[in-house]
Amino acid sequence: MTIADIKKTIETKMEQSINAFKHNLTKIRTGRANPALLDTIHVDYYGSPVPLSQVANVSLLDARTISVQPWEKGMGAKIEKAIRESDLGLNPASMGELIRVPMPPMSEERRRDMTKLVRSEGENAKIAVRNLRRDANESVKKLVKDKLASEDDQKRSEADIQKLTDKRIAEIDQLVAAKEQEILAV
């Protein structure tokens, strides 16, 4: 493995960490409705737990309401029960075959809790990026130790890896700030 391979690998892994962080952010509730909020809910489908998106169509009715349209007639009650029993604090209402899930307004205390959760997720993402930096630097040091790269190459690559790390951490900070703004907007 060369230094260029190490840089390419770390860049790919950092991108994956950022994407995982973005995905985690979509699951954090804001005042607005978001169909991704229901991604974690599993419904009992003939005895086995199945993700909600595999038994129903989940979409937005308006800015504060998610609609869930079951694909089978008998699934409405099970879906409603699964949403109600989730830890999201949602109260679905059935209208024939369509299930409406209104987003209740969040209290100030709940908003603060959510911003703490966002910061915690951001810190976890930063830790993942820093761990990738450490692993890459160790790989470069091993190349130098095995006489496959010079110490000058090591210094240059460590500087490049640090720049990449700083860029990714700044991106995480921006995502955290944007999500906090979204949560705190009434």
Automatic annotation (TrEMBL):
Keywords: Cytoplasm, Protein biosynthesis
An annotated GO BP: cytoplasmic translational termination
Keyword Isomerase part of the UniProt annotation: no
Signal sequence coordinates: none
Residues in Ribosome recycling factor domain copies: 21-184
A GO term for molecular function: ribosomal large subunit binding
UniProt xrefs under InterPro entries: Ribosome_recyc_fac, Ribosome_recyc_fac_dom, RRF_sf
Pfam assignment, any one: RRF
Gene Ontology cellular-component terms listed: cytosol
Localization, UniProt: Cytoplasm
Subcellular location, principal: cytoplasm
PANTHER family: MITOCHONDRIAL RIBOSOME RECYCLING FACTOR PSEUDO 1, RIBOSOME RECYCLING FACTOR
HAMAP family: RRF (MF_00040)
Stated family: Belongs to the RRF family.
Biological function: Responsible for the release of ribosomes from messenger RNA at the termination of protein biosynthesis. May increase the efficiency of translation by recycling ribosomes from one round of translation to another.
Protein's UniProt name: Ribosome-recycling factor
